[in-house]
Amino acid sequence: MRPIASVPSDCTTTIGDPLRDDRREKILAQGTHHQIRKGAKMHQFCHTTAKIAAWNLAGYNTISDARYEKQVEGLAILDAEVVTLVEVKPFAHMQRLIDGLAAKGCIYHSAILPQAGDLNIGILFKEGITAGEPAFVPGSDLDDPGKRKAITVRMTVGKFDFLLIGVHLKSGRQPAQQAIRDAQCKVIGDFITDFRSHSREDVLLMGDFNMIPGQDVSNFHHLGGDDLMDFLSSWDLQDRFSHILEKGRANLLDGFAITRTYSGEYIRGSLRLFPMHWTMDMGRERFREEVSDHLPFVASFRIDRDLV
User: Fold this and answer.
1) Do both 110 and 31 map to the same domain?
2) How sure is the predictor about 9, in pLDDT bands with cuts at 50, 70 and 90?
3) How far is CA 19 from CA 35, 87, 97, in A?
4) Which of 23, 65, 157, 251 fits as disulfide partner to 19, beta carbons 3.0 to 4.6 Å?
5) Which CATH number fits the domain that encloses residue 113?
6) What distance in Å separates the CA atoms of residue 185 and residue 223, rounded to the nearest whole number?
7) Residue 187 has pLDDT above 70, yes or no
């Protein structure tokens, strides 16, 4: 792959023939396919959609060099414009991923803040995408350094602008652990409600919810704020798993949501579990051992228009 030049956020680059403008217009008008040749000038074509993904890297334990290389390979195959990464550990692992992707011709930047426990949440985004300064949702770790704060970044991809919130909520299936998630979800839900009270920007919420649709009902209720969030991963996803257990079974712990007033940017039916294990010629159990115990989500959005 050839490195992508820095261009407007809804465009990428391709190679075109150095024809005079008048000849080029005639060719385009006639619908003729012109042969590309070496040494040609750079021209732009604009995308109408972008892929936004979320993936837990399983960094709770040390990420070995071999796992790192496979994660870089997986991210390059995923090739999303924006990727929310959970369990980035150590903090420097994000830059290592960026360097590895750059070596493959995939140019990314990042937005990340250090968590107290060094189990971090970060955002990878491609060259040309606009990202503001990352910030934490205050109190979303319940003032416990052993938990993770939700991270927020305001982003613009083409004409689609939104607030991205990356989360990694308390794990566990017992009532006490669900109660902790309830408390975290209330803080994040209140933050979304307050944000939407003075802004019409869309909110994209994604990451490791550690919540199972149909079981953790109170968690989803509180995380949705004042009934503001549409949990796409609960209804617009064909696959019903994302987390691979040691026993080989799997469940749906990761989540993807957007404000109900998205007005058409989300392309319905596009949210899917990315079969990274298949793309890397692995079974689920081997993927769990060598890459991550989670598979990514990826969804497509319209970026060629600004819908309010």
Assistant:
1) no
2) very low
3) 11, 50, 39
4) 23
5) 3.60.10.10
6) 4
7) yes
